[in-house]
Amino acid sequence: MPENNTTNPAYTKALNNLIEKFAELPGIGRKTAERLAFHVLKSDKAEAMELARAVSDVKTKIKQCRVCCSYSEEDVCPICQDPSRDKSTVCVVEQPKDLISLEKTGICKWTYHVLGGHIAPLEGIEPEDLTIDKLISRIRQGEIRELVMATNPTVEGDATSLYVTSLLRDSSIRITRLARGLPAGSSIEFSNNSILSDAILGRDEIE
């Protein structure tokens, strides 16, 4: 059978290529990709170049904060640099998107540590694939007094939280987790501010 080709012969090669690239983005179907491509085509050159520059900047300027492993354009991100932040309390999240969601509540005064995912052996993700070693190194520096486990309330998130906790059983650090107002199987990224605020304020210790 001939290969299924979704390109439209009525479009130019450049336009087809742009549509294909938009269609590869999460949540973007073919029709939406076409609308986006035509929007870029119809916009003036300066606007299109600004879009291209913004995409380029994301890939060339953003790196990993050497302290918390979140996104940053500097060696140390603004949150880690902020002198008003409580450096003795570190909230552990799976992804930078989770950090952003927690920050939107406006009540977090702590700092963070981004693991870069969760432990999932069936997906080939082991503890050494995450930034757990960097977290342990931060703890050994002696400044951290409380670790708030804010992994997602999923099987993988809970397993990751328990693994990190097991590494610190003999330490004097207080380890807490967000209150279970978050529905099981949900994601911090998509939870509203009210639910997250309640989960933060109602956090309890991990036994």
TrEMBL record:
Q: Which PROSITE patterns match?
A: RECR, TOPRIM
The GO molecular function terms of this record are: DNA binding; zinc ion binding
InterPro entries noted in UniProt: DNA_Rcmb_RecR, Rcmb_RecR, Rcmb_RecR_Znf, TOPRIM_dom, TOPRIM_RecR
Gene3D superfamilies, per database record? 3.40.1360.10, RecR Domain 1
**Which is an annotated Pfam family here?**
RecR_HhH
Keywords on record: DNA damage, DNA recombination, DNA repair, Metal-binding, Zinc, Zinc-finger
**What SUPFAM superfamilies does the database record attribute to this sequence?**
Recombination protein RecR
What start and end residues bound the annotated signal peptide?
none
Any one Gene Ontology BP term: DNA repair
ZnF (C4-type) intervals: 65-80
Which stretches are transmembrane?
none
Please state every residue range assigned to the domain named Toprim: 88-183
Which top-level group of life is the source organism from? Bacteria
Family assignment from sequence similarity: Belongs to the RecR family.
User: What role does this protein play?
Assistant: May play a role in DNA repair. It seems to be involved in an RecBC-independent recombinational process of DNA repair. It may act with RecF and RecO.
Q: What is this protein called?
A: Recombination protein RecR
Native species of this protein? Sedimentisphaera salicampi
